[in-house]
C-alpha cells in the first residue's frame, strides 16, 4: 500500500504490485473523492461545487463561480483552467503561483477557450437608472 502526493494537494492511495496500482482512490486537495463510475460532480443534474455540497448554497443573488470562494483573480487576458492560468497568446499554463506547468496543445487550447472562466477584459461600471 502506498500514496502518491501531487503538487496540487491531491493524493492517490493505492495497493501496488511491482509499481503498478491494482486498486486505488484519488482524493482532490479539498477532500472530494473521485468516483470512477457514476461520477456526477458538477454535471448537468447537480452543478454545485464541492464546497457548496459541504457548506450549503449561498443566498439568492450571490453566485459562487468556482469551488474556491472567493475565486482566484485571473490575470488580464487569461483563463482559469483549474490547475492554473492559461494565456492564449503564449499558449502557456502556469500554476496559481505563476510557475510554469505546461504548453497547451491544440485540443487543450480549444477546450480552455470554450469552457473556462476568463478574466474580464472590459470594465463594467454601475449605471444608475435615469
TrEMBL record:
InterPro entries per the UniProt record, alphabetical: Morn5
Any Gene Ontology CC annotation: motile cilium
Subcellular location: Cell projection, Cilium, Flagellum
Superkingdom to which the source organism belongs: Eukaryota
Record keywords, A-Z: Cell projection, Cilium, Flagellum
Name the record gives this protein: MORN5 protein
Organism: Sula dactylatra (Masked booby)
Amino acid at each position: 500500500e502506498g500514496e502518491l502526493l501531487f503538487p496540487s494537494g491531491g493524493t492517490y492511495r493505492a495497493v501496488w504490485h511491482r509499481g503498478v496500482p491494482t486498486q486505488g482512490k484519488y482524493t482532490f486537495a479539498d477532500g472530494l473523492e473521485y468516483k470512477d463510475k457514476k461520477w456526477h460532480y458538477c454535471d448537468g443534474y447537480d452543478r454545485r461545487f464541492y464546497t457548496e455540497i459541504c457548506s450549503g448554497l449561498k443566498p439568492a443573488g450571490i453566485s459562487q463561480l468556482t469551488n474556491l470562494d472567493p475565486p482566484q483573480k485571473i490575470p488580464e487576458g487569461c483563463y482559469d483552467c483549474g490547475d492554473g492560468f492559461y494565456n492564449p497568446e503564449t499558449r502557456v499554463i502556469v500554476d496559481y503561483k505563476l510557475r510554469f506547468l505546461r504548453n497547451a496543445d491544440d485540443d487543450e487550447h480549444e477546450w480552455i477557450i470554450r469552457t473556462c472562466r476568463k478574466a474580464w477584459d472590459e470594465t463594467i461600471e454601475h449605471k444608475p437608472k435615469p
